[in-house]
Amino acid sequence: MQHFLLSAAARTLSLKAVFKMGEDKAYETFCEMRWAENDGEAVCPRCGCTETYNITSRRRFKCVACHHQFSVTSGTIFASRKLSFTDLLAAIVIFVNGAKGVAALQLSRDLDVQYKTAFVLAHKLREAMALEDAGQKLGGVVEVDGAYFGGYVKPTNHKAHRRDRRLLANQSGKRQSVVVVRERDGDMLTFVGKHESDGVEAVHAVVEDGTTIHADEASHWDVLHARYEAYRINHGEAYSLNGACTNMAESFFSRLRRAEIGTHHHIAGPYLASYAAEMAWREDNRRTSNGAQAGVVLEAAMDAPVSRRWAGYWQRAA
Ligand SMILES: [Zn+2]
């Protein structure tokens, strides 16, 4: 069977096409994504049986073998969805189209849904993006770099009252480090920790032996020389010297910084890892067409299990 991303359906997954297709066709698209290996025909999630009764009026299925009842979104991050299939598809298209990310407030206005609904939906889509990258290993030539986000301390108005915000004692304690590991001409992964040095362990976990690593002069990267062929660039001297540079890693940070400042204005600490992974996914897929990107996210969302973190999130938080 032809891969969904290469099909006409994926190419035409524009916002216009989504609203034109209507609810029946949108539902069909979800079935095609969920059960791609069975030509879009339902497969029982409990026993794997491919023979099912189709309860068309309720868009549910009943397994012939084990009598389990399920829907196309059962067991996926869209389980117990409240939005129509058209709205869900539209949300995915709007979400992938936002190169700097999409604010929940904008999504709620565009779809005419509650802010809470949009907030949780956007986080579920981020979760699907992250799952698509899970378990990935990086190799070849990679660049490693870190940057700090969050915990902004506003300077006081009068100069005499100002404190040195570089000193630990004068920081909010909410600042976190994002470390990016980026293959040249390849994919990237991100890690969030209290300090940039926390990224060393992450590098060891995802970068394969035999890899060439480029990093800056920060001393915590010194240990990488023991396992990898490592090149260092002292940014006090130059951005690129004798072939050593971390410009690709830094271009990722400028994207994440633009998302923080331009779209979300403030990224709350617990969500930093999700936003970093989302922006890495966007950077990795920047040459893929919008329609195909929407297809990748939908496919990942249908493969992703029921969200532990976001299922009933507002009910819990309230
Ligand atoms: Zn069954």
Task: Describe the fold and architecture.
The structure is a single chain. The protein has helices at residues 8-11, 15-34, 85-97, 104-111, 115-133, 199-206, 247-264, 272-284, 290-303, 313-317, and strands spanning 52-55, 60-63, 69-70, 141-149, 176-183, 188-193, 212-216, 229-233, 240-241, 244-245. The model has no long low-confidence stretch (mean pLDDT 84). The chain has 318 residues and is of the alpha+beta class. It has a 5-stranded mixed beta sheet, with helices on both faces. Helix 4 (104-111) packs across helix 5, helix 5 packs across helix 8 and helix 7 packs across helix 8 (272-284). Zinc ion is lined by residues 44, 46-47, 49, 63, 65-66, 68. Zinc ion (ZN) is lined by residues 44, 46-47, 49, 63, 65-66, 68.
In short:
The protein has helices at 8-11, 15-34, 85-97, 104-111, 115-133, 199-206, 247-264, 272-284, 290-303, 313-317, and strands at residues 52-55, 60-63, 69-70, 141-149, 176-183, 188-193, 212-216, 229-233, 240-241, 244-245.
Defining traits:
single chain, 10 helices, five-stranded mixed beta sheet, 318 residues, alpha+beta, 10 strands, three-stranded antiparallel beta sheet, binds zinc ion
